[in-house]
Amino acid sequence: KQEVTQIPAALSVPEGENLVLNCSFTDSAIYNLQWFRQDPGKGLTSLLLIQSSQREQTSGRLNASLDKSSGRSTLYIAASQPGDSATYLCAVGGLDQTGANNLFFGTGTRLTVIP
Amino acid sequence: DTAVSQTPKYLVTQMGNDKSIKCEQNLGHDTMYWYKQDSKKFLKIMFSYNNKELIINETVPNRFSPKSPDKAHLNLHINSLELGDSAVYFCASSPPADSPYEQYFGPGTRLTVT
């Protein structure tokens, strides 16, 4: 059974700092890995999707890496801004017997960027 | 032009009632899902529905039943509601497995059982 862990659980940084969020998973037989952002009381916004054959994906100030063999992914945020404050969720995708891609979520990292 | 929509956004009801949450996606996706986010903010898969085949997570009580009237909808019916069912329920959809297979989530339905 896939288990996903995110460290740290909470992080506060001053504006402008670069930061790294960590995600680890127990079963390396994954289909893909997706990073989400969740604002308080809101839904999930997809940030980056990494296929199992890929090593990293970039979007603007965000860079996500994937090391399947070690069961790890990182989300790097450059030049953090107060608007980046949110909970960041790592989700590992695995195909079930119908071909659906079920996501297994980590517990999230709550990020606060201080102006 | 919302991609994945859910109604209602908030649902407050008493124990023992039966309720439904609707989900619609206009992305033309083949696969839809329901997730539950508990009070500790932990998200867990409940169901996946792909090509008319339903997979139920083993931990989901049989009081929960998804129903798909067509490819764009996957509604969640809950019978005999219990206090522990209070949570935020998210619907999601994804394209076929031969594409990037990114999942798109609805805004969530906050269910409160009193």
Overall pLDDT level of chain B: 90
Discrete helix count of chain B = 0
For the terminal residues of chain B, how far apart are their CA atoms?
A: 34 Å
Low-confidence stretches of chain B: none
| Rg estimate of chain B, integer Å | 14 Å
User: What is the succession of H and E elements of chain B?
Assistant: EEEEEEEEEEE
Name the shape of chain A in a single word: globular
Strand content of chain A: over 45%
- Helical content of chain B stands at under 10%
**Mass-distribution shape of chain B:** globular
Q: Estimate the strand proportion of chain B.
A: over 45%
Biggest sheet descriptor of chain A: 6 strands, mixed
Helical segment count of chain A: 0
**Secondary structure category of chain B:** mainly beta
First and last CA, distance of chain A: 41 Å
Structural class of chain A: mainly beta
Radius of gyration of chain A: 14 Å
The pair of chains with the biggest contact is: A-B, 27 and 28 residues
DSSP summary, beta strand count of chain A: 11
Largest sheet of chain B: 7 strands, mixed
- Can you write the helix and strand succession of chain A as a string? EEEEEEEEEEE
